[in-house]
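ok so for the tutorial part 2 we go from a plain amino acid sequence to predicted structure tokens. step 1 is just haveing the sequence, like this:
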Amino acid sequence: MNKSTKPRVKKEKDRTVWRLILEAKKIRSGLILGAVLALLVIAANMISPMFAKEIVDILNRFWLTKGTEQTFDLMKELTMPIVILLSMYIVKSALLYVKMLVMNFTVSRHFTANIRIRMSDKIKMLPVSYVDKTEPGKMLSRITSDVSDMGNSIHEIVDTLIMGVLQVIAMMVMMFVINWQLALVVIGVVPISMALSAMIGGKGAKHFTKEREIVERYYVQLEETYSGYATVKAYGLEKDVESEAASVNKKMAESTGKGHTLIGMMVPVVTFTSSLSYALICLLGGYLAINGVLSLGGVIAILLYSKQFTQPLEQIAQGMASMQRVKTSAKRVYEMLDHKEMEVIEGDMPKKIEGHVKFENVNFSYREDRPLIENLNIDIKKGQKVAIVGPTGAGKTTIVNLLMRFYDIQSGHIYIDGVDINTVSRESVRNLFSMVLQDTWLFKGSVFENVAYAKEGATLEEVMEACDHAYADHFIRALPDGYDTELDEGTSNLSGGQKQLLTIARAFLSSRELLILDEATSNVDTRTEILIQKAMDKLMKDKTTFVIAHRLSTIVNADLILVIDDGSIVETGTHKTLLEKDGLYAEIYNSQYLTK
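step 2 — the prediction. this is what the tokens look like for a chain of 596 residues:
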């Protein structure tokens, strides 16, 4: 990192810490209660050594007066200080326990949970392009481990700033009240301890930054391995996956090890400097006690304060170490929360539409330096079945993405029944479409719940009717629990064709005027393909339908075929007229169905 970038990085980290503090304002009532409890703990810590001092002075006075006329009732003198001291220790333990409960409840229920809810809401507002470019593992890492680190930082704020700093200040005052010379001995080690801790913490920070990046990669690798489990098994790639996982784990272990080794040095450094002061107090305190400057109880009290002094210093050191890690985690969370959202457009499409779709001079590209669709013009009448064909990467799916407003066009217009879809909300546009895609998506739940997903408040009768239209009712009734059969993880208890029939049933249930089909008959057996084709023919009736076709046999009866190449329509017509033209469509068709 060059010198010019260092101030900028430091400024970003400081801004992240400031945002964390502002974030904590939302739970200030819980933090205030935690702080009050922490102050009571500090008060107990301050009072306890004074009663210990009194007990030692009583014992010392009794020993010195033993055998003289000044003897007194030792047990009577000791009873009250001992009872108070024991009470202080019991109260302190109870307060620490209650503080822990309050902080855990406040942070877990009202801090980390709220951040995760905000991140979940944020995902809904992010453009599809962000989700497309971000691996699920990275998203999972930020929502889980990074947010947990941020929650831990709130504990550190209370423990470090209140239990740590205030306790150090209070102990300094108490020690000066007892004896200023011994107080200076204890305080003299603080600058040394803090300087060493800050230096070590700074060196450990870069390792924690690297560790978070590797953890993110670990989540990505884990998600990819799990989702591609069958493929890994089929190709016998277990050794390769294990090797990659081992490599990621090794790098993570190295970063974590270096970071924690450095950070782990902070506590021993604080302990060493505190022990040094402890030894000096014994020497100087003994000298002062012998010379009558300070009582033996006073020396014991200073020793107890000195011993307690180590704990808040360790808390401060650990807090500094933790904040290095938290800065990295919080920065990644805020990067996601700060990402530019989709522009919210008010307005709705008409509730009832005919299904007339028109592309007018549409231009679009995923990257500015690589144009894809240029000056696209299509006019599709109500009820037409439109097939979109072309080579891989030609822009077939892109047209659907633009229709559904998963992506917004750079220029031009897309009209549905004369309404420019870019002037109304995305939700109202998407509510016009039913979709049956090549990649079926079903979730863990019952068959009924998976089909009913297409319509809020759908009844069992409606779901059964939709499944009957989709030729799915017969196999559903053959399942162990019929419509109540639970689909397992990955829906492995259904065949590919059965999954596809359920998604077609969804489309029947949603009953929308516009329909998108993305080669729904691929990867199924011949018998199921016939059922799927019959179901889709029924589904397409009286609907304006867009079919993304890979196997051209499925679209020979289309009203209009659009042949796309490099984002432009190069041919239009019916199956028969396009074959007669002997152009790109004929070339693709012949490559699939004619043999040499």
